[in-house]
Specification:
The complex is a heterodimer of chains A (110) and B (108). Chain A is built from no helices and eleven strands. In chain A, strands 2, 4, 5, 6, 9, 10 and 11 form a seven-stranded mixed sheet that branches. Chain A is an all-beta fold. Chain B has 108 residues and is mainly beta. In chain B, β4 and β5 form a beta hairpin. Classes of the chains: A mainly beta (110), B mainly beta (108). Chains A and B meet through β4, β5, β9 and β10 of A and β4, β9 and β10 of B.
Amino acid sequence: EPEVTQTPSHQVTQMGQEVILRCVPISNHLYFYWYRQILGQKVEFLVSFYNNEISEKSEIFDDQFSVERPDGSNFTLKIRSTKLEDSAMYFCASKQGEQFFGPGTRLTVL
Amino acid sequence: GEDVEQSLFLSVREGDSSVINCTYTDSSSTYLYWYKQEPGAGLQLLTYIFSNMDMKQDQRLTVLLNKKDKHLSLRIADTQTGDSAIYFCADDNNKLIFGAGTRLAVHP
């Protein structure tokens, strides 16, 4: 069964460093998303991406964040200068009808 | 803005039915979802319902949608200890808006 994959499963970084979280969406899906879940809190929408551009972004998705689809399969989330409060689980999702989520990347900023 | 609300905690006895409730505000939803999350794990899509349906049954799971009242429920029949998890309701209008999650505890 096709699935969304994410790497790495866990990323530890120092405050101020750049991180890139990677996702491989399901191959025939056209809509891609990033969400995050701070420990113990609800899942929050960050950004949606369609036709090689951002279709919607939340207030959380400020200038420190960017997304890219560098080739036909990967979808990345870059955080330019990480802050302590960026520590969270980051989920990628893709959709053709219903949304399917990847297993998440746990980002820890020290 | 759009909002999704759920009760935070539900405790049931093994073998009983569980009913988890959710209300939402967005009237443009296309799909409504139920996801399951076990400790430290990702989001498992349990089931979903199109916004033009009233009910969907999938093995032990029954989803009821009252579009007029913007109320969604998930019934789990014959609840097992393996069903213990957090259950998130989410509404889809191009992006998902999640509720805070209902922690289901199943006891013998």
